[in-house]
Design goal:
alpha/beta; TIM Barrel; 7 strands; seven-stranded parallel beta sheet
Length: about 350
């Protein structure tokens, strides 16, 4: 999917401590939708990128908090790309609003719901999966193949197994086990901005061990039961041989080049029609922390130096160490070796 960030709409009704987006509440922000420039940027991307992306994912801020602007953006995409799927990222709080639920159903939008399972209260007292009206609506979307859930894993939410139990209970309650709902566990990368959430030490290896068991279950074909099929897709997709390819780090701040092999375009575009390096930061906004200008010193001498899967995000400025990245690459090594051995048999 091409990620489209709504320019000037970075306000959010949550204040997630680990969010790497910019400051959320800016009274002076102004939405800009440059239709001609956005159309050109999408066309240029598709003409020049290595891997074509179909469909669009819309990001903010919280897109539903900017409902009028969201409607305008979706109308533009429907008019110009009528056959393509549109997904909207949301924390789910405003799904309590009837007109928003009606609009999502009418336009057959897909939702990526951000909810952190057993650790949701760290983000907000509101949990969309524990609200009867919202849960019933989400269940309908799941049964229609129009819902994914993203659960961020961090130092205070490190157990894959506990979260599997949590989400499975919700699916059973709302009769979604037969659906194609995909629940992703997204590990939080290290950052100096939010040290309390960086996966480290014992909690890091609890997460990795449980994640590895899940991956092996999928790899061995044991994940066909109704529970595990919802959690098996994402770990399979994240382990790739391409993560161990050597890349040129000379153009460090252009993470866009790793989508396209061209440093001037990416699959992140804002509604102003500008290519951006991150789906959470429009072209008129600076990241929360200082952006790394060069490869950190700790990368020198590492066995994974200059490998694609270990390339650090310039906005996640963890300057002291890279415990998470190294452990993640070692995990992938083990899984690729296991996959190779199983195929020989």
């Amino acid at each position: 999917m091409i990620n489209i960030c709504m320019y000037g709409c970075r306000s959010c009704n949550f204040s997630c401590a680990y969010c790497m987006g910019p400051e959320k509440n800016n009274k002076n922000e102004k939405f800009i939708l440059d239709k001609e420039q956005l159309r050109r940027a999408i066309s240029y991307y598709r003409e020049n990128c290595v891997k074509k992306s179909k469909g669009f994912a819309i990001w903010g801020g919280e897109p539903l908090l900017h409902f009028a602007e969201l409607v305008e953006t979706i109308s533009f995409l429907n008019d110009n790309f009528p056959k393509e799927r549109i997904m909207v990222s949301t924390n789910g709080f405003l799904l309590k609003t009837p007109k928003i639920r009606h609009f999502i159903q009418e336009k057959r939008l897909k939702l990526q719901l951000s909810v952190d399972g057993v650790a949701q209260k760290i983000r907000s007292e509101f949990n969309p999966l524990e609200n009867e009206i919202v849960s019933s609506f989400l269940a309908k979307l799941a049964k229609s193949g129009l819902l994914t859930i993203n659960c961020v894993m961090h130092q205070q939410n490190y157990s894959v197994n506990k979260n599997i139990d949590y989400f499975t209970k919700w699916m059973k309650t709302y009769d979604c086990l037969e659906s194609n709902l995909n629940i992703r566990f997204t590990p939080f990368n290290e950052s100096d901005l939010t040290p309390a959430f960086n996966l480290t030490g014992e909690h890091l290896y609890t997460f990795l061990n449980e994640f590895e068991a899940l991956y092996i279950k999928a790899l061995l074909g044991k994940s066909t039961d109704l529970v595990y099929k919802h959690f098996s897709i994402y770990p399979l997709k994240t382990v790739k041989k391409s993560n161990f390819e050597k890349i040129d780090w000379s153009d460090f701040n252009q993470c866009s080049k790793f989508y396209t092999n061209k440093s001037n375009i990416s699959k992140h575009i804002d509604t102003k029609g500008k290519f951006i390096s991150c789906n959470l930061i429009d072209s008129g906004t600076e990241p929360r922390g200082k952006t790394l200008k060069k490869i950190p010193e700790y990368c020198n001498g590492c066995e994974f130096y200059s490998m694609r899967g270990c390339f650090p995000c310039p906005s996640a400025d963890f300057t002291e160490k890279c415990e998470w990245k190294k452990a993640w690459m070692q995990f992938q090594q083990r899984m690729l070796l296991l996959n190779k051995l199983l195929r020989k048999k």
